[in-house]
Amino acid sequence: MIISIILGIVIFGYAFWALYHSIKKSKKGVCASCEIADHCNASCNPPSKK
Fold first, then answer.
1. DSSP assignment of the chain, as one string?
2. Which residues touch 25 (CB under 8 Å, ≥6 apart)?
3. What pLDDT is attached to residue 27?
4. CA–CA separation, 6 vs 43, rounded Å?
5. How far apart, in whole angstroms, are the C-alpha atoms of residue 47 and residue 34?
6. What pLDDT, in 10s, does the model give residues 11-25?
7. How confident is the model at residue 2 (pLDDT cuts 50, 70, 90)?
8. 4-41: buried (b, 16+ CB within 10 Å) or exposed (e) per residue?
9. What is the mean pLDDT of the chain?
10. Is-contact 20 14, C-beta < 8 A?
11. Would you say which domain of life the source belongs to (predicted)?
12. Which residues contact 33 (CB under 8 A, 6 or more apart)?
C-alpha cells in the first residue's frame, strides 16, 4: 500500500514537472528554447514590415 502511494506520487510528480518544464520552455519562444540556437543559420526573427 505504501509503495503504491509513493510510486503514484513519483509518477504524478514527474508528470507535473515535465508539464511545467514544457510550458516554461515554450514561453521562451522557438529559438530561445532550441538546443542548437547558437549554431543555427535559420532566421528566428519574422521579416520586418516596411
1. -HHHHHHHHHHHHHHHHHHHHHHHHHHT-TTTT-TTGGG--S--SPPPP-
2. 33
3. 77
4. 46
5. 20
6. 999 999 999 988 887
7. very high
8. eeeeeeeeeeeeeeeeeeeeeeeeeeeeeeeeeeeeee
9. 78
10. no
11. Bacteria
12. 25, 26
At residue 39, the 3 state secondary structure works out as helix
Separation between Cα atoms, residue 8 and residue 24, nearest integer Å: 24
pTM across the whole model: 0.56
Residue 10 has pLDDT above 70, yes or no: yes
25 is written with which cell numbers?
520552455
Q: Is-contact 3 16, C-beta < 8 A?
A: no
Above 70 in pLDDT, residue 38? Answer: no
